[in-house]
Amino acid sequence: MMLSRIKRSNFWIRFRIILLIAGIAAGVLAIIFFGFPLVEDLIKGVDPSLRYQPKVEASFSLEDEDAPKAIKSEEMYFDKKYQLKNEPYIDGDNIIFTTQVQKGSVQQLDGVVVYDTQSGEERLLANTEKKYDNFISPVLSGNVAVFLDSMTNGGGRILGYDLEKDEQFVIKEYAYAPPRLSISGERLAFMQWAGEETQRLYVYNVATREPATVKLYEQTTGNSAVDISRSDMVWAVEDGKGNSVLKRIAFNEDDAAFDDYNFGNAVYGPKTNGKEIVFRTEKDTASCTLMMSTEGGEPTKLAEGVFDYDIGDNFVAYSKGGQIYVAYTNATDTVQLTNEVTRNRLASANGDGICYYDETDKSTENAVLDEVVQYAYVPAT
Length: 381
Prior knowledge:
The chain crosses the membrane at residues 12-36. Keywords: Membrane, Transmembrane, Transmembrane helix. The structure is a single chain. The chain is globular. It has one helix at residues 2-44, and strands spanning 73-75, 86-91, 94-99, 111-116, 122-124, 134-141, 144-150, 156-162, 167-174, 182-184, 187-193, 198-205, 210-218, 227-228, 232-238, 244-251, 256-258, 268-272, 276-280, 288-294, 300-306, 308-311, 315-320, 323-328, 334-336, 344-350, 353-358, 372-377. The chain is mostly beta strands and 381 residues long. β6 and β7 form a beta hairpin. The protein has a domain at 307-376. It has a 4-stranded antiparallel β-sheet with strand order 1-28-27-26, with no helix packed on it.
C-alpha cells in the first residue's frame, strides 16, 4: 500500500514538472511571436492591432500586361442639327458623311458635311451642286472629298471637292448602277458598269485630275468592287461557274503591274491595306467566313458569322451579332469594341480609325430618327 502511494506521488511530481516546462516554452514562444513585434510596433508608432488583420495586395490585378489596350469610342454629336448621317467615312481626324439640309416632305440627301473629331466642329461644304437625287458614298483623302450625285433609278456622276479651294469638280458620269469608290492618297479607284455585261476598272488621280482605264471586262457576270491602298489595289473576278478569284495590281514608283495571289476559287469582296488582304469566302454577306493573308501568304481564318468588315493600317474591323470587333493584323488579339447591351453596325475603317452606327434605339418602339454615329482610334500594338 505504501509503495502504491509513493508511485502516485512521483507521477504527479513528474506531470507538474512537464506542465511547468510546457508553460515556460509557451511563454517564450509568445514573447518571440507577439512580444518582439509588439515592441517593434510601439517603437514605430504603429497600431499593434493592425498587424494581424487580413491584408489586400495593392498591386494585385487580373489584367495581362501583354493584352491589347482598351479602345475608347466617342459620339459624333450635333445636337440634332444633322439627324441623317449617311455612310460616314473616317480619314484621320475627319469624318465625312452626306445628309439632308433642306427640310421638306421628300427626304433627299442634299448636303455633304465634314466633322473634325478633335475640335468637334463640322463644316457643310458650301459649293456643292446637286444635279440629280442624292449625294451618296462619300470618301475622303486629305483635302479632297469624293462622292456620288446619284439618280434613284440608276445613273449619275462622280464628283470631287477641293476642301482648300471650296471647289466642286466632275470626275465622271455613269449610266447604270452607282460605283463603289475607294481612295488612298491621290488615287481613286472604282469599277463601273458600261453596259449590261461590260465593266471597266478605273483609276483616277484626284490631284492631276487624270483618269486611266486599267481593265475592260466583257461578258462578265459581275466583279467585286475594287479596294485600293497606297501600294496596291485588289478586286475579285467571277467566271459565272461559281468561282471567284483574286486580282491584284502592285504600285511601284513610276508604274504598276499585275501581281496575282492564288487564294483559291472562293474570294469575294477583298480589301487591302498594302500588306494584308482580307476577304470573305461566301458571296452572301449576311453571314460569312472572314479570311486574311499577309503579303500573299496562306490565308488564315479571322472569324465566322461576319456581317460586314473593313481594314485599317494594323487591324481588321468587322461586325458580328450586332457587335463591332477589332482584330489586330500583327498579333493574335481580337478586341470587342462595343457593349453587349447595344446593337451596332460598321460604317467604315481607314488608317487608324473606325466609324460605326449605334442602332440600339432603332430596335425599340420609340426609335428616333437621329442616327447615332460613334468613332474610335485603334492604338498601335
